[in-house]
Design brief:
Elements (H helix, E strand, L loop, with lengths): L10 H6 L1 H15 L7 H23 L5 H20 L4 H27 L6 H28 L4 E2 L8 H13 L7 E2 L2 H39 L1
Helix pairs in contact: 2-3, 2-6, 3-4, 3-5, 4-5, 5-6, 6-7, 6-8, 7-8
Amino acid sequence: MSAALPTGFGFEGVRRHPSAVLLVGQLLGILTYPFLGTSTAGRLLLGVVGTVIVALALWAVHASPARTWIALMLGAPAVVLAIWEAFAPTSDAVVLTSALVHAPFYFYVSWAMISYLFADSEVTTDELYATGATFTVVAWAFAYVFVATQIVWPGSFVGPTPGDQPWFSLLFCSFASLTGVGLSDILPALPQARAVVMLEQFAGVMYLALVVSRLVGLTAMRGLRRDDRD
């Protein structure tokens, strides 16, 4: 398989690179969240954005060696709960159920995409996109774990907002923990939250050590083989 960059962004290019579409969708979701406000319409739009991201994740799983029907079983309730949560953002039962459904879904998607990355001995263009998309999916998964944690153990996270921290703040905390930069004003205050954050920090280090290093190694080997042929 060739690792040449796609020649265009038409339908064929999109069809051949589902991981790229998922990555762009995740990044657009991050940029969209701050502008949606706290209105019902804004929350509903958040639900739609979440639904689109779930659909893109399902598409990416379909291109991986993982079983699509498992992703569908987890993704379908996630779509319903994303919309329901838009109308009941203060219901702990709804938010907790949504988090407990979304977290396993995103963890399964991340496992499926890592399996996809390890299924090939050469680096393809879509695998380059999948490396970035997998990272964002893992961050999303842990953000939902953070949401569930602070509902079960109130006061788990402290930050500028009194009480429970909003979803976007927890997503920011998740990215800060996964990357290891630690630049976050959202801090785990209870032992349960700190345990979860430590797990994510470990996952971030292992992602670099196993996934990214393998990608770099395969790319270097391809360069060496090309030099040998020349």
